């Protein structure tokens, strides 16, 4: 793709010169004339390929003393140096917030949270709680870890619990 773009630009400059469109200063010297052709371009901000994994918590045991922790990743490719913001909404659970999301079953819910750090002290949410970073390049994937935790001590009925959180990329 890169070679094709360069070839197309070169062909356009050569065609323009042959048609008398290009303007250049011609200077004479002992060996003949020479011409300078100026070139320029811009690089647009761009992000591609936002992918997110699944946080698969182990089976929750209501009387366990420890929290149930799990992790996944979010991956993105953005032009080098582009300021990127990735936010996560509160999910679909009734009564959820970005600080306390809800894994829901037909008759019950489990509180859980998503974090940006392994110590699980910085909630990943929206606005000020979003993650901001500089893109590493369209050819280099940036991988961000997402850490989940279901707090211990929640007395719930047996069943399958789930939630879907929307991840938004802004640049």
Quote the beta fraction: 35-45%
- Report helical residue fraction: under 10%
Radius of gyration: 27 Å
Mean pLDDT: 85
What's the number of extended β-strand segments? 10
Largest sheet: 5 strands, antiparallel
Strands of the largest sheet, in order across it? Answer: 3-4-9-7-6
Tell me, what's the shape? rod-shaped
Order of helices and strands: HEEEEEEEEEE
Per DSSP, the total helix count is 1
Blueprint (SSEs and pairs):
Elements lengths: L1 H17 L7 E4 L2 E4 L11 E6 L15 E11 L4 E6 L12 E4 L4 E7 L15 E4 L2 E14 L16 E4 L1
Antiparallel strand pairs: 1-2, 3-4, 4-9, 5-8, 5-10, 6-7, 7-9
Please tag this protein with its features.
single chain; 171 residues; mainly beta; five-stranded antiparallel beta sheet; three-stranded antiparallel beta sheet; 1 helix; 10% helix; disordered N terminus
In brief:
This protein has 171 residues and is mainly beta. The protein is built from 1 helix and 10 strands; from the N terminus they run αββββββββββ. The chain is 10% helix and 37% strand.
